[in-house]
Amino acid sequence: xxxxxxxxxxxxxxxxxxxxxxxxxxxxxxxERWMTQxxxxxxRHRHAxxxxxxxxxxxxxxxxxxxEKAARIARSEVVQVYPRRAAVPHDLWGRLLRNAASQIGILxxxxxxxxxxxxxxxxxxxxxxxxxxxxxxxxxxxxAEAIALKSxxxxxxxxxxxxxxxxxxxxxxxxxxxxxxxxxHQTTLYNSIYRFDDEMLVNTHVYGFPAPHAPxxxxxxxxxxxxxxxxxxxxxRVVTASRPAWPAEVAA
Length: 252
Hints:
Elements: H1 4-12, H2 17-24, H3 28-36, H4 43-53, H5 57-60, H6 67-77, E1 78-82, H7 90-99, E2 103-107, H8 112-117, H9 121-130, E3 134-140, H10 145-153, H11 159-171, E4 180-185, E5 191-196, E6 199-204, E7 216-220, H12 227-241, E8 243-244
Parallel strand pairs: 2-3, 3-4
Antiparallel strand pairs: 1-7, 2-5, 4-8, 5-6, 6-7
Helix pairs in contact: 2-3
């Protein structure tokens, strides 16, 4: 049975069995077997290929990583856990934003605190987009049932919708900017996700508590791990189900 994930990853990165074999110092026929017969390479070769195609080992070879090892890697993917969002160092937010080189993703209901603690956020996002960074902002649909319910659960009826409308006064300046996509979603969020390349901050949602008082995990992607990928996949699912904030904008 062929390994279609590996084949696709190599094609997307312009790699042939011959070039991969040269980089890994192996026989090209071995690379062919990895693709066509789903043979599993040695760990050192899996590491090298995963780095070449910028994919996780667990994605390319789901059966190669034992559940025990996957659990150990997942623990290593957690850089830090903060008891509440307010405990996340301000300079960490700044570092992650400024160091992003390929993508910035923000999945929230409103996330008003971001523009409050970083007054130049919009200018920074524009600058990053101009550098080729893909910027995706996913905000709660102000008229969605999930938004109304969230406000009721927090004991602040109508406040969440007002926050979204307020934060849109900032994000409207991204309208028409290349590489930026601002969308509305109607998802019931279990976490707010802030992704910066291969690092992310995941703000859990706790019933009855506003997000600033809920824990935050700082996660960094590791080859062979799947914790980062779990939240990344969740983010992408919301992207698929979202709608552009402005009719003329094409969804990511």
